[in-house]
Design brief:
It contains 27 helices and 31 strands. The chain is of the alpha/beta class.
């Protein structure tokens, strides 16, 4: 098999991904092996690959590929979320381009357009994930709008309704005027914004008095139905029982009393607008106030908005302030910073709105889910800090508004048969609904045509909270073979920003519908940020093109670049140089492979240096294997990669290959070559989860392999106890070699020029490592002596002192001058440290570790002075 001169990721990646797919390595079916299951956090059907997806899915692929190598039946289920709000917005925009208004279409016709858009543009991201190397079981791909997935959602809705956990209520909800739908509390993002506080004068009926109120939203005065004062506020006792006149609309409203009013805020008087503020609605209910809604569904003003009807709320704010000022109602205005709720999806400012909606009671569902994370440790969070975030939300959980005023999604299975608000039934099918409606209405003559299904759809998260169960058919067939085998899943990898939207709700659904946790471990990734610590976004234009990065650096390079900088829960400061580092690592491995394959082999005895080096690297491999296992057990994925990176780059490529490499144009012995290949293959197995394409390419070039022998289905290396003595001995030898190389560099002595090395101390590490020192240092002699050598340079490694004779090789006078200068500097440094240590005040007051550090500086300086003095004596 021809070996290309350089690694070509673009050619390699396409080839091996097709090979893996052809041979079904990603496919999983229940069998006798231990299952390892991950379900993908389903990206929106509208989505394209970005850096967050790259990080999240790389981590999942690492875990899945390692599970395969460990012999587990690895199953990674991919899929997409139908993303009601985002997708409907895309379809509406596309129709608008064609001059079609959604309102002019019927529901069915609109849904035909939505499916057409989904089939044309949806799922791009799943194809892009293949470029990254993701080894999902693509035959299992699920979509939250698949027939069986939708049927699961409807079945759960009906079940929860029958249990009394789903109810319909007229409540104040979060209204997104751009998407024209309600949102749950978790979908509202609060942002600090600079606004203004407007002080307005309300005339008192049948009086010349006025009352001043402060508001941040002057446009809402048109919906005021009361003025509220604190009953204990002495300033307003004279207003009790009177009425105020709302400016511009001239509506007389009662002045009510309630200790809810904060006497310290604004003027101590509160305008009450029950239709547009949740707290005002509570006051309205308590005091039986009228409700005046002034907004349309797009947040323009309706007929209650007087001459502002049809205008946008923010336009009205400017205009009404001008009118209030002209008519003498505006007393003053001042800057004011407050938190404004915005839509997580559309970024529109949320409008509180009264509406009939469907809600799910959460308190009973939350308890087992809270205990599973915080009490029984049934589910573990990595990092643990997110358990506190989870606790905070779960303990203060509110009922979930699950209805959305959209057409794209699962239509709520409530059927109305009469004119009353309670004239409805809930059922999985229209036929079952008809039976229930006939019974409830006591009207046997009702027909299907008499039933009208609720127009709203369910919140998208009401689909995805069932994901780990429904992808295995566990809602429709709770005892089927697949869900019993694959559920509960093992690991969930997700971003912390959906801990409430998705993670917590999946846990609730798992305990409710399977009586089990949905997953054992949750690994929270960090957010990918740019070098300025800004979150990457399209708006900022600071997010690189993910596919372009793969094209430029190779998928393996990008994967390594992301993971080397990523620790659980911590944000990543992304820099393209990280991907270059990953690409450089791939080239390093490729060049090591080419070096090994380029050696000629002969029937020769094995050199002692090679034997010792191979034993040392085997010990180092075993030590690293133990480190890697520890890192994986704690979900320190980046640390695991770094341990492998150092093992391969430093220990294998930089040390072992140099130790075993035969002399120029000489063959290598077969014993050494066989062991080098064996160890290299172990490296490839460790690297495969992180760099799947490169490792498979090298693996397949190492020897002729059948499909059953592909690296993707090989065995994870089995370690044994590491010989730590051998490792520490080599570390010592490496320092000696570094000392020799430093002298060569400083004195400009070529590597091919053999040197003599003498050890002054008898604490030698032994002849085992001497063979390696001799080879890598290119020594003609290595002996232990009783005294230093004249005309020699010395260096120290721990308590051992080494001399390299330099006669005839260096400029003695220049060397004496250099050593003298270094000696003078070191003596001066030692003197300053000793002065500090002789100061009793410093020694008594400084932290113990600081004093210890200063003492170490003194000891090191003394040892260096001794070495320099001996070197100088040898030259003079």
């Amino acid at each position: 098999m021809d070996i290309p001169s350089k690694y070509e990721p673009n050619r390699v990646e396409e080839h091996w991904y097709s090979y893996w797919m052809k041979h079904g390595y990603f496919s999983s079916k229940p069998d006798g092996r231990e299952p390892y299951t991950i379900v993908i956090p389903p990206p929106n059907v509208t989505g394209v690959l970005h850096m967050g997806h790259m990080l999240n899915n790389t981590i999942q692929d690492v875990l899945v590929r390692r599970a395969r190598l460990l012999g587990k039946n690895a199953c990674w289920v991919p899929g997409m979320d139908h993303a009601s709000i985002a997708t409907e917005a895309k379809v509406v925009a596309r129709l608008k381009e064609k001059g079609i208004n959604k309102a002019d279409l019927g529901r069915d016709e609109f849904l035909n357009h939505a499916w057409e858009w989904t089939n044309t543009y949806g799922g791009i991201i799943l194809e892009q994930l293949k470029k990254l190397g993701c080894s999902c079981d693509w035959d299992r791909t699920k979509f939250t709008m698949d027939d069986d997935m939708s049927a699961s959602v409807i079945k759960v809705f009906v079940d929860l309704y029958e249990k009394g956990l789903i109810y319909r209520g007229f409540r104040m909800v979060n209204w997104d005027p751009e998407a024209k739908t309600t949102l749950s509390d978790e979908e509202v993002i609060y942002e600090e914004r600079q606004g203004e506080l407007y002080y307005l004068a309300y005339p008192i009926e049948d009086s010349n008095d006025k009352v001043i109120i402060a508001t941040t939203r002057p446009e809402t005065i048109l919906g005021d139905t009361a003025i509220c004062i604190n009953p204990n506020d002495e300033r307003y006792q004279h207003l009790k029982g009177k009425k105020a006149i709302v400016p511009l609309c001239n509506r007389a409203v009662p002045i009510i009393e309630d200790d809810y009013v904060d006497v310290e805020f604004g003027t101590g008087c509160l305008k009450v607008t029950p239709a547009h503020d949740e707290n005002d609605k509570n006051l309205g209910d308590k005091h039986n106030l009228e409700i005046v809604d002034i907004f349309n569904d797009d947040a323009s003003l309706n007929s209650n908005g007087l001459h502002y009807e049809g205008k946008d709320r923010f336009v009205v704010r400017k205009e009404i302030v001008r009118e209030l000022n002209e008519k003498g109602f505006l007393v003053k205005r001042e800057p004011y910073t407050n938190k404004v709720g915005t839509s997580e999806r559309t970024k529109a400012v949320i409008e509180p709105r009264l509406s009939d909606q469907w809600f799910l009671k959460m308190d009973m569902l939350a308890k087992p889910a809270l205990d599973g994370v915080l009490k029984t440790d049934d589910i573990k969070f990595y990092p643990k800090k997110f358990a506190n975030t989870y606790r905070h939300w779960m303990e203060g959980i509110r009922d979930w508004n699950i209805s959305r005023q959209l057409w794209w999604g699962q239509q709520i299975p409530a059927y109305y048969y009469g004119d009353g608000t309670e004239d409805y039934v809930v059922a999985e099918t229209p036929e079952k609904a008809l039976e229930l409606a006939r019974t409830k209405s006591k009207n046997a003559n009702l027909q299907l045509a008499d039933l009208k299904q609720d127009q709203d759809v369910l919140d998208t998260w009401f689909s995805s909270w069932l994901w780990p169960i429904s992808v295995f058919g566990g809602i429709l067939e709770p005892d089927n073979k697949e869900v019993n085998y694959y559920y509960p899943t093992n690991d969930l990898v997700t971003a912390p920003d959906i801990i409430f939207f998705w993670v917590a709700r999946m846990i609730m659904a798992g305990y409710e519908y399977r009586g089990q946790r949905p997953f054992e471990n949750v690994y929270f990734t960090g957010l990918v940020r740019d070098k300025q610590r800004r979150k990457m976004s399209k708006q900022l234009g600071n997010s690189p093109d993910a596919l372009k990065l793969i094209e430029d650096f190779g998928a393996d390079g990008v994967r390594v670049g992301l993971l080397l900088s990523s620790s659980a829960g911590n944000d990543i400061m992304f820099d393209e140089s990280l991907c270059q580092q990953g690409a450089n690592f791939a080239n390093k491995i490729w060049n090591a492979f080419r070096l090994i394959k380029g050696w000629e082999v002969a029937d020769l005895p094995q050199p002692e240096a090679a034997s010792v080096g191979l034993d040392w690297y085997t010990a180092k491999l075993n030590q690293t294997l133990a480190e890697i296992e520890d890192h994986f057990s704690k979900y320190r994925i980046s640390d695991a990669l770094m341990a492998i990176y150092k093992l391969v780059w430093d220990d294998f490529c930089s040390w072992l290959l140099e130790i075993v490499k035969p002399s120029y144009q000489h063959p290598i012995d077969k014993t050494t070559l066989d062991r080098v290949i064996q160890l290299f293959e172990a490296n490839l197995k460790l690297l495969h989860p992180f760099m799947p394409f490169l490792t498979e390419e090298v693996w397949q070039h190492m020897a002729e392999r059948t499909p059953e022998q592909a690296l993707i289905v090989a065995d994870w290396p089995k370690g044994s106890e590491a010989d730590t003595t051998l490792i520490s001995d080599f570390d010592f030898a490496a320092e000696v070699i570094a000392g020799i190389r430093t002298i060569r560099k400083e004195k400009n002595i070529a590597q091919k020029e053999a040197l003599e090395l003498f050890l002054l101390n008898t604490e030698n590490i032994g002849s085992k490592m001497d063979t390696i020192i001799t080879k890598l240092g290119n020594l003609s002699k290595l002996e232990t002596v009783d005294s230093g050598k004249d005309g020699a340079l010395s260096f120290r490694v721990k308590s051992n002192e080494y001399f390299i004779p330099m006669s005839g090789s260096i400029d003695v006078e220049a060397e004496i001058k250099k050593i003298t200068e270094e000696l003078d500097y070191t003596r001066g440094f030692l003197k300053s440290v000793q002065k500090k240590l002789s100061n009793e005040r410093f020694v008594s007051n400084a932290p113990e570790q600081v004093v210890a550090m200063e003492k170490k500086k003194a000891a090191d300086a003394e040892a260096k002075i001794e070495t320099l003095e001996k070197s100088l004596a040898g030259l003079e």
